[in-house]
Amino acid sequence: MLNVSHISKTFFKGTPDEKKALQDLSLTLETGDFCTVVGSNGAGKSTLLNSIAGAFYVDSGHILIDGVEVTRMAEFRRAKYIGRVFQDPMKGTASGMWLEENLILAARRGEPRRLCWAFRKNDHEQFRQMLAGLDLGLEDRLQTQIGLLSGGQRQAVTLLMATMKKPKILLLDEPTAALDPKTAAKVLSLTDSIVKENHLTTLMITHNMKDALRYGNRLIMMNSGRIVADYKGEEKQNLSIESLLKKFEETSEEVSDRIILG
After folding, report:
1. What is the pLDDT of residues 211-223, one digit of tens each?
2. Which range marks the domain in which residue 45 is found?
3. Which of 52, 60, 242, 257 is most buried (most C-beta within 10 Å)?
4. In this structure, what CATH number is given to the domain that contains residue 242?
């Protein structure tokens, strides 16, 4: 489903601030893979997700999604293949619009725009049922401005919007980093259920070692723009936090407090 082949990306090339964010990185995900991504700050995790999403073009290499070459495809064009949840709950939704207006935008993603009524006959009831599945009491708040919802509620809605059209790839960039532990656990549980139910191919960045081990069938560790460890199947199931931290010490110059305390 995803084939990233020998991609490299350098920011501020030729200046004192030059940063090699990705260095000849390759990664292949099969359909339905749920891969967690860990690494110290500056390891290149978010740069990898942004390069797949099309936030910028890579300097070299190729990116294919379900066999389609998207390396030089504009971000808005490859959006039909990708669902995304950001670290900041304020991103991914239009805060001044109603909850159901945000949902209708997600429901029409990838469709041609034309002059017509946005809502169709069964949209309202369909949205109510989808929101009821979140178990957050949002099914009766369709006409509420989404900016008035809590961070956890917004993140859950963003997840729903990102997966509504069953994307080829779901990108989760520390989706619970800004949430309290109880709400974070709820959002991650919802994420896991939606990913499994829809058999979605997923990449999730996290600084929480427990979450990295608990979720998904694969775990990769990044350092200095490269993948330095790749654990799958039974090997991943047998991993411990201690063994992951030991690997960090072997491959990184420093281990951040976020990783240790996560």
Report:
1. 999 999 999 999 9
2. 2-96+151-261
3. 52
4. 3.40.50.300
